[in-house]
Every structure is written in structure tokens, then in C-alpha cells.
Amino acid sequence: MKEGDEADAEVANSQKRTTSRRELARNPRFEQVSPEVGELDESAVEEGLREDPDEMLAMLADLVGATDRRLRELAKRLAASLFLDIARRGP
Questions:
Q1: How many Cα atoms are found within 13 Å in the side-chain-facing hemisphere of 74?
Q2: What is the pLDDT of residues 61-75, one digit of tens each?
Q3: In terms of residue numbers, what domain contains 44?
């Protein structure tokens, strides 16, 4: 177990890591959700949420760590919007 400065360095290093399109493409739905670099198809995300919400939310979490900066920002924005909608609706 890492402690102190070593733990801080490990956290900082892990925050720098991103996920490539090749890695993201392991998810069969990825090409529908992000057909091109820098694109996020919100209708494909909505469809995924209807079919398998847990899988889609996990994928969205992965997209937030994408190497593709534009995709990463779009995913962050969409995730924030989704969670605000869920919070407003309540349990």
C-alpha cells in the first residue's frame, strides 16, 4: 500500500491516463455512440440507456477518460446532464 508522497504521485499519474478509441471500441456499442473522432451520438446513448442502463452508464464513465479531448468533454457534459435529470426525478 502506498502512502504519503508516493500515494499522491500514483493518484496524479492515474489521472493523466486516458483511454484510446481502440480500447473503447472493445465495447460493441462504441461505434454507434461515437461514429467518428470527436463525436458523441446522444440518440445512441439514449437508446443504450433504454436497453441496458448499467452498461451505458459504465461506457459513459469510460468515455469521460477518452484520449479524444472533444469526445471526453462531450461525455462529461452528457454525464452531468443525465445525473442532474436522475436527481431531479428522485428514486
A1: 17
A2: 999 999 999 999 999
A3: 19-89
